[in-house]
Here is the input.
Amino acid sequence: MRTVVLMLLLLLPAVVCAQEFGTIRGKMTDRETGEPLIGANVIVYSTPNRGAATDVNGAYVILNVPPGRHKVTGSYIGYKARTIE
Here is the structure.
């Protein structure tokens, strides 16, 4: 019984900390053709070192983003960079 209680107490901080961050996900496509932009860069300006590259479907996922409003910029060679909030 003590082992179970000890395990629960050790796991509690991990559960609490895991809820302090969120995820930003989306998809980058060409506005005219709808084709995915593979390998585009997506950066969150309000958090240092947070960003991702799009996959073969143009999708991206940025993990461990603190709660709140953020400016996200997408860029791709040959396209004008676009920032959204």
